[in-house]
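Reviewers asked in the last cycle whether our approach scales beyond single polypeptides. To address this, we selected a multi-component target totalling 549 residues and predicted its structure end to end. The input consisted of the following lines:
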Amino acid sequence: MSELEDVMKTFGEFGADKGILVNRDIAHLVASGHRILSMRAVEGLEVRAEETVTGIAASVRVLEGIIIKNPVHLCFGILHKKGIQEIKMNVQLERGAFASFIAHCIFPRAEKVRHIMDAVVEIGESAEMRYSEVHYHGLYGGIEVIPKADVKVGKNGRYLTDFSLLSGRVGKLGIDYTVWVGENAVAELTARVFGHGNDSIKIKEKVVLEGNNSRGLIKTRIAIEDNATAEVTGITEGNAGGARGHVDCLEIVKDSAVARAIPIVKVSHPLAKVTHEAAIGSVDKRQLETLMAHGLTPEEAVDVIVRGVLK
Amino acid sequence: MPLLEIKDITYRVKEKEIFSGLSLAVESGRVHAILGKNGTGKSTLAYLVMGCESYIPTSGEILFEGKVINELKVHERAKLGIALAWQEPVRFEGISVRDYLTLKSKEIDPSIYLEMVGLYPELYLDRMLDKSLSGGERKRIELASIVALEPKLAVLDEPDSGIDMLSIQDIMNVIDALKKNGTSVLLISHREEIAKVADKASLICNGKIMCSGNPKNVAQYYKSRKCEVCIGEECVYV
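The resulting structure, written as structure tokens, was:
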């Protein structure tokens, strides 16, 4: 079996659609470890990628006014037990462009694996980018995931992102995103993570509302059990008139797990407004009893609540 | 044998006695209304019957189909056939109305239960059971979920309360559906007109059942608002 076939087989085992590789209307980039296995662009989308000593360097550009109809699939991973993969991404959406990206990050056997993502994103005026990053991990917990992104959203632009790590052990996660939001632009960042064992989750997301009437939302949903730890820092700065930001963090804690939430809001313009809410604790007793009153056992009820929060 | 029998229960929280020697029976297939002012322990009675955490009688017994259920947990009572429609139902993130109505069985058609409480299935089934719903909408969905459970006993705690008030007709629809399924109803309210749909009514005050009988008479007595001049020690009007 070729490495590509192996990657796609694993990809399929996690419930993903293997057909994306053969569909000529769908752009993709598949990389395993330091190797690029497959790549396709579509009209209006330019993809350049090269192999580096530690991973992949890629640049993606969506040309002015181009609407990419189908999501662009980015498939990264390491199938071996040990290894490093460093992805350097440069993404540019020109004025009025639209593209949706789905990044599949697959590490099924990781015992000592390091996955580093360093992205620079520029979203032009009135352009929109949607980015969904889904992680599929194995049960060993020997993985370190370090995604870092610096994103600039131009006037009237939109940036919507959703990071989820719900399958398998988290290992060590260290998200560090900063988003600069221009005039009338919108940034929405969602992260959903379920930690087990001795997983360590650190999420730092910062939204700087620097344009008039800009909007920002940082939404984090975490569930941790066993001896896992989580620390969520949501930072929003309102630096322009009419800017509105909100930080919303919910962490459900079970067993001996420990969670922290650090919402930081800063406003430097009298007409800006930033709010925050954070809730950490065990499963809500009333929710639990409501589901138990419908016949679910306490364990089933907790499972339904946690799955709902992470949905 | 009554379906539900509450025998001489006392319920104390710290030093405060909420119930002292309260007894009550709900017959199979019947609707029994509990009337009483705010703060008389009506919701506490509902939680005691459902077995919510820390709601265990200090003394006395709660029997369901002749068996003492004092020590049973909420889900164990639910499995026996007891269900509770909460006065203020909680909201859930990531759980749709469809998910909620089919918690017990995925085989049922949830649409019919939504229609029963005056909600259009096409507009509500895929909505989340979260804070985007109004209090009245959430309440209707709670009542629909109780009918879907087909319990032996449904405890309806203030079904008419809420921001968007449910009409009496909507509550009647729910109670009719429950009765058709052979479900007994313990209908808790502080509004006397609700009692009229019941087969029997009881007035609760000062931790005791003060009178029981024909709903019309109990409602009339309650309506006279003699409770308003109660000195809180002993009901001199019964």
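Chain B has a mean pLDDT of 88. We regard this as preliminary and will revisit it once experimental data from Aim 1 are available.
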